[in-house]
Amino acid sequence: MYLRVLCLLVLTSLLILLGQPNAQASGVGNGTSAESLVQQMVAESGEVLPPQIQPPEVTSPAPVFPDYLQRSQIVSAYEKEVHQSPNSFLLLRLLAAEYLKRFREVGDVEDLLRAEQAARRSLAIQPRHNVGASMLLASALLSQHQFWEALQVVTGVQQMVPGNPNIASLMASIQMELGDYEAAHQLLQSLTTESANSGHNAVAARYLELTGNLAAARQLLDETMQQMDSFYTIPAETRAWFHVRAGDLAFVAGDLALSEQRYREALELFPMDVPAFTGLTRLYATQHRWQEALAAANQGIELLPMVETLGYKADAQKALGDPEGAAATEDLIEVVAHLSKVKGIYDRALAVYYTEHGIHLSEALEIAQREVAVRDDIYASDTLAWAAAANGRWQEAQQAVQRATRYGTEDALLQFHAGMIALHCGNQEEAIKRLTQAVSLNPQFHHKYADEARQVLAKLTPSASS
Questions:
Q1: CB-hemisphere CA count at 13 Å for 183?
Q2: Is the pLDDT of residue 397 over 70?
Q3: Could you tell me the CATH superfamily of domain 371-465?
Q4: Is residue 243 within 8 Å of residue 225, measured between CB atoms?
Q5: Does residue 306 or residue 190 have the better pLDDT?
Q6: Of 3, 124, 250, 444, which has the highest C-beta tally within 10 A?
Q7: pLDDT averaged over every residue in the chain
Q8: What distance in Å separates the CA atoms of residue 122 and residue 153, rounded to the nearest whole number?
Q9: CA-to-CA distance for 309 and 329, rounded, in angstroms?
Q10: Where in the chain is the domain with CATH 1.25.40.10?
């Protein structure tokens, strides 16, 4: 079986390299990649593999490893192997990993379901000493927003393998989605500097971002992004993800030029990166570069129609004097929303879209309330606060926004929401504080609300504004 798996890994590399004649090296990703899972399987069985040659240190970004071009062929190869050996827990585990990779690259929710099924089958065959399958199952559940079940799976794994940094990082990520930042902090603190890796750093940066340490989050993420860029064998989508996150944090900090650069870099690494197109669309919209916003939105929507990107497209069409086109886009949003509700994965984006556009406000509130019930993180509270305010439920809005801002998250949009709710509730001093922070963090944080924040501040503090 071991030789068969190695042969399959060689086949995987050949499939990729045949599509790139000038490739300089071969490999299959990181994290839940085939190599790492084989290494883990061998470690569990007590066998020893020859030491791997470490790639040399480089000062410039490594060439892109175009594994995504052959993902479907790789998946098919594993599917055939599983069909021939249906009781191989290892092959099922490798197949689950490839399904997850394709989901991250293409966004097909069906691949999440396939990954979940393959991981469960692997665990059914080999319930013990099969940590890789448990981690893949938890990742698939997390991506489906089944947070509590994902946490239950990871907790079971942690009890079997205490002190594993990958397990602790994944558990911390889930705890943040559930709004338990204290538990996430304890998990991240339990890891030593030596055990930290790119996955841990990504989770730690998210924690720093949400708890009011944006500068530290940016520094950690930028350093990790540069490290990831030095290895050719890291999948293109994974490398691009770090550039997108760095672009997101640069945007939040008001560094719009760097934000655009990071999104562009992500697309150079992985041209199918939908989050990069969405980030560019948002960026251009806040700057009222509507033609560019429309172009970026169209590119992203062609790959995967998402509510957020479609919303920016409709706004761009309206700004460019195309009400008929905007109406057609809004109709498409309703279609996408209906399809998304089946799994509930994109509910938050839909609630935000409805609230910002003043439509279906009661439904937006219901969505936000449902989101908080299963995912009580900072942005779920913020979404609920703004939806409740739009429905005139100010006490609920005030309570929710207090939870959303309890860690001092340096996000201009979140601070704007808090400021406007405080103003309506009669707390002018709090409103001035929050709105001032919003425009200071990012003067162009939103294509509509940034100007509104300045206008309200001008009325509240005429001497300061003049």
A1: 15
A2: yes
A3: Tetratricopeptide repeat domain (1.25.40.10)
A4: yes
A5: 306
A6: 250
A7: 87
A8: 14
A9: 10
A10: 1-45+66-185, 197-271, 371-465
